[in-house]
Each structure stands twice: as structure tokens, then as C-alpha cells.
Target: Glycosyl transferase family 2
Amino acid sequence: MKFSVLMSVYYKEQPEFFRLALESLVNQTTKADEIIIVKDGVLTTELDSVVDDFSGKLPIKVVALEKNGGLGNALRLGVEMCSYDIIARMDTDDICRSDRFEKQIKFLSEHIDIDIVGSWISEFDGKPENIYALRRLPCEHDDLVVFAKKRNPFNHMTVVFRKQSVLNAGNYKHFMCLEDYNLWVRVIMSGARLANIPEELVNVRAGLNMVSRRKGLKYAINEYRLQKEFLDIGYLSYLEALINTLIRVPVRLMPSCVLKFVYRLLRR
Model:
């Protein structure tokens, strides 16, 4: 099964993190047939140099956007530009386990009824070996559909999906910080089937500083918009959407110190 890897990079990202992410793709036991890198606006010289350095090691194809339009818009175009029906997502600061693609591509080849497969993750802060948390999610379709009514059913950087299933659901949309969650619910509503592999196949650069950045009024408004959309498309009842809003919106407005404390409790 030939497959594409889809990444998006923008000027604020760290070149050394990007380099480690691409190195983990070089080391895969099952190699990607193409790697689509969407440059979401003009990059720094250092980030451009990383892309140039790996162009001889990986089958990289660059899609360059003139202006930064956000992750959802970049991934929407990236999906359209991918040559193959199987697309693997990858973030530019995370590290794939060497057998990640081997396991996920094999899973999709053996489960032709599954449209999206993700995995569990380990989370690290600073150095990759400083793992401080795991995020383990349900693995079976029915459990994921129920889980998605309250929380994101996938670790976004781990998903491998069939391109047509994402296009059938309307592809990615701009939805600051929640692009993937919005997409997965639409994918569910379109009749697609989901799964997770119960292994940590990606080591994710998270950390408490990242948590504190994802707060504020804009993020709170986006949480409200997300629940309203889930209500409008019939995925949630009014009561479910109301409860989710009352829980999720205040979290985005918490002071950083409180938010970090809550995150530590949830990740233990």
C-alpha cells in the first residue's frame, strides 16, 4: 500500500525539533512514498534549510503558501495534494517510533472496513527521553463514537486515514486548535469507521508550556463554536452540548497556574 505523509510547518517552529521529526521518518521500517510538507507562509532560513537537508533523504514535495492561514487550511490543501489514498499525519516537532508506519499500514491493509487508525502516545517535555505522561484512548469503533461525544477520539499526530473518507466528510476546516476534533466527528457522521492501535507509536513534544498557550477568550469561543456545530449536525443532543460547553469553555479561561495543575492531574 503506497502512502503519503502530510505535515504542515510555519515560521514559529523550532528547526532542531523539525529536524528530529524528519529524522524519525528516515528511520521508519516502512518508508513513505511521498512526504507532503505544506509551508504555511514564509519560513525562516533555518527551517527552509532543514527541508533542503532532508530532500535527499526523503521523498519530500513542498507546497508553499504565501501567507499563514492556520493549520486547518494548510492541511485541507495538503490532503488534496497527496497522491495516494492512504495519508499519515505527522507533526513537525514529534518523533515517530521506527515501526509506526509498518504497524498502521499493515492494520489498514488487514482491516478494509476501517477508515482511520490512530494510536496511543507518550508525551515528553524537553528531551525525548523525559516522558512524563501517556495518552491512551479507546480502540474499538463503537467505544470511540461514544468517547467522541465528550473528548477528541484521536491523537491527531498519530492518525493514518483513507483520503476519500476525509474528503467525503468535507476535509479539514479552519477551527483553531480543534481542526482535527471537528473533522473526526464529521467523519463519524458520514459513516466512516475508526480504530486505535493500543501502543504508543509517537513520542509527542507536549509539556506544560504548550498547555498554557492554548487558553484565552479566542480558544473559549472556539470551544463554544465546536459544541454548537456538533449540535447542529445532530451528533450531540442539546443537553450533551450544554454540559460539554459548561465544562470545556471555563477550562480555556483558567489562569495558567491552575490549568497546568489540572493538566498534571489528568495526565497522571
